[in-house]
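During the reporting period the student researcher (J.K.) took over the structure-prediction task from the postdoctoral fellow and processed the backlog of single-chain submissions. One of the processed entries is reproduced below for the supervisory committee.
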Amino acid sequence: MLGVLLLAACAAHAEVRVTDDYGRPVVLASSARRVVSLAPHLTELMYAAGAGEHMVGAVQYSDYPPLARGLPRIGSEAAIDLEALVALRPDLVVAWPNAGSARVVERIAALGIPVFRSEPRELEDIARTLETLGRLAGTEAVAKAAAHAFRARAADIARRYASRPTVRVFYQVWDRPLITVNGEHVISKVMRLCGGENVMVDLPALAPEIDRERVLRADPEAIVASGAAGERPPWLDGWRAFPGLAAVRGGHLYAVRPELLQRHTPRLLDGAEELCRILETVRAGRRAR
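J.K. obtained the following structure tokens:
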């Protein structure tokens, strides 16, 4: 028994080395015990990896699981309060560098605080990130189990839907400006999991602004919108002004809660299940004609 305890103690104090999604090494003297998250999806992943008890701060909208709502806030993704973050004395910061946070992330790293940068582009990246966060926090057993469950569920969804007849989909992130996602975005990978095809797959930017004419030319069979606060966005029905659009003719205008498709977490597969059911409805409409 004493030997087991000694091994556990040594493991807790052993140096931890991983490589982040930008190819940068992340080195900790020992497993992280004070973690600050700069993105809601990373907050959720930390809890899913069994490391929720090591979270000491997070950005606005880190609202899942419910325990995360009680974490001290250090601003939003676009306006991180560096002073508040430093005051929390983190031994690890997990970040998703974007236009609003990239500069602050570099400043954090310059202060000598280890930073793990996340940039998931594939479904597998979610499972892999769970495992990596588990290594950083010393919760590998829980993290590996969560990653295994995610992979198994994704494979099951693919078996049921990926080879179904293709449905052409337009995914609308927002209305003014009109924002969508390209083929590199994880949402496009979810579409493929369901046998769907993103009509904006070839756009160069990950989440580009486009005009309505481009959507009309693409003529999707279904339009899926993210909305806000879990409600059907009022602008989704604005597409009814274009009755020649295939999605409008078929009545295939749908909304999925944004946290289920726009956060790169295990709940993405809840969004996938919902999207797959939507595409099955579109297929059924074809057969009925």
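The committee noted the following: Residues 27 and 215 are 46 Å apart (CA to CA).
J.K. will present the remaining backlog at the next meeting.
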